[in-house]
Amino acid sequence: MRAAWLTMVALCACEPALPEGWPPVKSPLGVDGGADAGLGYVTVVADGGGFRALIDSTDVARWVAVDLDAPAEVPFEGDGWDLAFQRFHVRARGGASGDGGVAITFTDAGYSPVGQSPPGPWLVDLADGDDENADLDTVLDKEAVWYEYEPRFHTLSPRALTYVVRTDRGGYVKLKFDGYYDRSGTPGWFALRFAPVLPPP
Amino acid sequence: MTAWLLLLLAAAEPDAGTEARELTTVVTGGRLPQQLKDSTVAVEVISRRQIQESGARDVAEVLQARPGIEVLQNVGQAGLRMQGLGPEYNLIMVDGQRVAGRVNGGVDLRRISVENIEQIEIVKGPSSVLWGSDALGGTVNIITRNANKPLGGSATASYGNLNQVSATGAAEASGEKWGVVVSGGYERRDAYDYDRTTEATSGSSFDQGQGAVKATFGGRDRSDPKLDLRLDYTRRVQHGVDQGGEGLIQDRATRDNIAQGRLGARIPVGNGEVQVAASASWFDRRFILDQRGSTSLDQVEDTRDTVAQLDAQVSQTVFGTHTLLAGGQALLELFESPRIETGYGQRVRGAAFVQDGWAPQVGLPVSITGGIRADYDSLFGAAATPRVALRIDPASNVSARFSTGLGFRAPAFQELYIDFENPSVGYEVVANPKLSPEKSWGTNASVQWSPSRWLFSVGVFFNELTDMITITEVPSAQERQRFQYVNLSRVRSWGAEASASVTIIEPLSLEAGYTFTDARELIVGVPVDNQAMHRGFGQARFRKRDWGLTATVRFAVTGPRPFLQADGSVQYTAPFGILDARVAKTLGRHVELFVGGMNLAAAGGGDLPIPPLSVFGGVTVRD
Predict the structure, then answer these.
(1) How far apart are CA B546 and CA A131, in angstroms?
(2) A201/chain B closest Cα distance in angstroms
(3) What is the residue range of B26's domain?
(4) Which of A91, A137, B29, B53 could form a disulfide with B39 if both were Cys (CB 3.0 to 4.6 A apart)?
């Protein structure tokens, strides 16, 4: 009898709770006092002589574009951006990615010591080459890829490189990737540091 | 000590238990009821008494200390590996009906509780000739109880650490022409964790309730037509925690509803019988991931798998020496999952099989069985699976068996139609509706010798699995890496098994065995992951009826297990041992008290997420 009663209890057991807020509604990043006045996917704050940016690139269909000279979020469809982000992909508006003349070089000298751009070589995004996908072969996805892949958890972590971006307005900006995840482990949240530097010698 | 043991062994006499075992009726080897001693194909039987004495509460615990069988435990389920072939290559049935709800290829043996099991039959090697898809490495057929008392019942309750609660019961009633068994139970256990430095759990908590009813009409002997109806329902809820990189923590829950029903009839006709059966199963899983601190990676997935099946077969004994069996099967499967391309799939499969069992009069007891089955599936086409088996008894206590045959595994819906992407790191897994079934060729040979109270068994096996479905990277036109299931891999497994058992004196019996298995992936040339080469097991049982005392100790030792690393090297884990024990004392006619422990050697942790050491105690009341 007891077994039968317990069975009934078990059979009536509640369904596991759905996640709070399910189904999820995608909301753009809130602008919390940052300098950005764009579309709501980028927050830029001043940090010493430079800036820190938090970029929501979680949407698989949206390119989130940043003008490093402003600095601010700008429409991807326009011609004012220097870098654009979609999930872990990063484009620079030069070469196959656009006519802004944006080019990138990099150094492993650390972030703070870099006060002047290295002389090059200057890399630009290329059309898809002879590989297994149809992606543009962008500088930051391929030739100077920004991440290291950790196969155990399928996570990406930034490489210890400092990039220097030659912007569409001819400026030079050093840039470092600090992260790709929010505090809850959600991918698609780029954390960047960047600051203007002197032109190459 | 040794002298004492030798004295006991010398005094060994024929054992009534061995004779009773030989008279056990089995169905799995030939798809027809026959006594174990007459079976051409080797069938291993685990009786209800053995199950009860082991203390096992589910089929995973029953099978984890058996020769030639491995129960593979992971976070979500416990699957079965036989002869070096994993859970997706072993068929699990209840009364000849496929168990619903294969997840990641295998059936979770932990959700099949033991309260209404009469016996478990195991056939190693390919049995697709009779049972169709998935019977490559072996077949496990769980036979449920029939009523055999006018009125009776039993109830068992136990409690153990990890708040492990088990309360099960069964009631039966029968008349001259009918019998009914109703059973049910509730079980639960907390989650467990081997690594307290992380939030992740090593094993999920579960709450499970199940109920079953089986009714039989007629069938008191083979000349009496029989009708049987079985309905069962299981609901299982599991909770656990997953931890990924970069601070990702997700609470995971699964809820399974599984219902199965079978209506069968057996009608004696001429020198044989006709069997027909209609069965249906329904598996409904809700899978939930709830990301802590965010909703971005929350997931809710509902998966449903519904299978309806019709079986018919006729058998006749002709010329006194041939038992002919012919039959057919029709199967309809409906599958719903957000992970497949259209969200919905269906398949129809038809099969026909014939088999001849021949016992030629040649002086020695010899039996030969040959058969072939042809399946046609609406998704992958045709598959033919023949098998030949031979048995020779050169002496009254010696049996030699040989069988060779083909097996196949139908590609799963997930493999045919998967549509999954992980855009955060840029990969997707795409459908391949052109997948062919996986095929195997398997050969088994064994000799069994039963002098006096001993039972010796040695055997060898060989399996080659071809067109094995594996995942590989393929060219992509999208902005991400693309993977696809393809028929690419090959696995070869071979090995040997040896076991011995003896009833030394009336209350004490011993059993020990060893299995050698060499399983290799042939394309890359590496050992199959997680397949130990060496495995041993042993069991001691003490049963003294006038004391009302039963004690069972069993162990299984698994040697180093290989794991392929990202750099192509192979690393081996440390060996581990499982030790279980149970002691029971009856009080009067109706009450039994018991205490026991599972995994008493405290194996587990790291890459071995098996349930930790547990002790329990309880009471059974029978009438």
Answers:
(1) 78
(2) 37
(3) 2-622
(4) B29
